[in-house]
Amino acid sequence: MRRPIACRIRLDGLPVRSETILTEAGPNALVLSTTLRDRGIWLDSTYLGHGNAESQITHLFVAPGRFGETEARSVPHDEIPVIHVRRLCLYDHFQRLQDFLDSLGHTGQVSGLDHAIEAVEHIG
Q1: Minimal CA–CA distance to 103: which of 72, 58, 56, 69?
Q2: Between the N and C ends of the chain, which has fewer C-beta atoms within 10 Å?
Q3: DSSP assignment of 25-65, as one string?
Q4: How confident is the model over 43-52, as pLDDT tens digits?
Q5: CA distances from 61 to 20, 24, 103 (A)
Q6: CA gyration radius for the chain?
Q7: What is the number of alpha carbons within 13 Å of residue 122 lying toward its C-beta?
Q8: What residue numbers bound the domain in which 88 lies?
Q9: How many distinct structural domains can be found in the chain?
Q10: Residue 102, class by beta-carbon neighbours within 10 Å (0-12 exposed, 13-18 middle, 19+ buried)?
């Protein structure tokens, strides 16, 4: 299932056109993708986890003038329990987006997370 996640992103204090999409691949896998189309910047994040197994997280960062960069890590299930507390995936995704924007020399801010959290926590 694929659905938009409502939130607003500001870049260097100014609103930018953005889109965040949630894609579910069953209860154990979640993909979040945020695109700042006018800037050619996007972040794809995948979260895979189940039970007491470590959660696997992979990010793909893309921006003009840079090769696509990936980052993969494992975290304890309790840190980001993909099945039961999906908002933690959303927080991680947006934190990585802010970190990426910072590495590009920008300041990113995300607002409207209350509605985004409701959409992410709704399974199915």
Answers
A1: 69
A2: C
A3: SSTTEEEEEEEEGGGTEEEEEEEE--TTSPEEEEEEEE-TT
A4: 999 999 998 8
A5: 14, 20, 11
A6: 14
A7: 13
A8: 2-121
A9: 1
A10: exposed
- Output the pLDDT for position 112: 78
Pick 23 or 6 by higher pLDDT: 23
Three-state secondary-structure class, residue 96: helix
**Phi and psi, residue 111, nearest 5°:** -130, 170
HSE-up of residue 82 (Cα within 13 Å, Cβ side)? 28
Angle between the 87-103 and 113-121 helix axes, to the nearest 10 degrees?
130
What is the average pLDDT across 29-54? 95
Tokens of 16: 């930018």
Residue with tokens 């921006």, as numbered in its chain: 63
Q: Which among 9, 16, 19, 79 is positioned nearest to 44, based on CA atoms?
A: 19
Residue 9 reports pLDDT greater than 90: yes
Of all residues in the chain, the percent with pLDDT exceeding 90 is 69
